Amino acid sequence: MNPTAVVSERPGDSGTAGRAFKKDGPVGIGASRPGFLWAAPAAVFFGLFAIVPLIMVAVLSFASWDGLSDPEFAGLANWKKLLDDPVMIKSLWLSVLLTVLGVAVQTPLSILLGVWAAGHQRNRAVLSAIYFVPMLLSIAAVSVLWRALLDPNLGVPAHATWLFGDGNLFGVQAGAIGVLVFVSTWQFTPLHTLIYQGAARAVPQVLYQAAQIDGAGRVRQFFHITLPQLRNAIITSMILMVVGGLTTFDTVLILTQGGPGSDTTISAYYMYQKAFKSFDYGSASAIALLLVLVSTLISLIVVRLSGYDRMRSTMEGL
Known about the structure:
It is a multi-pass membrane protein. The protein is mainly alpha-helical.
């Protein structure tokens, strides 16, 4: 005699829906949804260190404050001043440019490396471990390292003039922007590679087996199976790149200091100059709030245009 009997009802039905019954009474067949108390610590942490500071920045963006005296309400004066500031307008375009270049360079490189690292090649684990080392270093340490290596007097360019010309990569805008893109790519590509590696390993092998039976080679498998299945990972990675690119600060501070002139003065670095050099915390707060709004808007556009918000399948790309 079977000791258990299961009563099945549709989800949402009252009474014994979703429960199994034994001789001695009902027992749950699945874990119940955690209560709010489980999320309370994270919610409190997020509120104290994200929501409250954001509200304070929003308030300060409508005030005049030098960091010492009491803040004074200034209305829209800070915002009008920023709109009339050519350096601010230029910094926004530079931020967008660096972000676009970062996405354009890091995305294909990360996908190729991630798919390769997900395979079973010989010595793959060792090579992957070595490649992921930059991800373990701080931004400041990486920036100091490359600043020394690319120094026009003592670094590599000074001994390879046939490749770098006069060796002063930081003396022209194109060279300085190229250095920023290269250093960011060197450090953050491993992070996105790790994302794609995990996503590639989750692709069902039966899809590749069916493609092999149909005569599809590796290139066709990559473009018709792997890439579509990595759609969710690509969107997640791109959003991280966009937010990271628009808020980059450490790299610019250490490598170029916004130079030459203001040719690499991105919005985050201009915010730092306004706050800690000009002691204009009202304008700096307006820049910070603007960056939050722009980052959020671009992320929502990426999600909307990609159809990510309409996906319901637990499988990648469906």
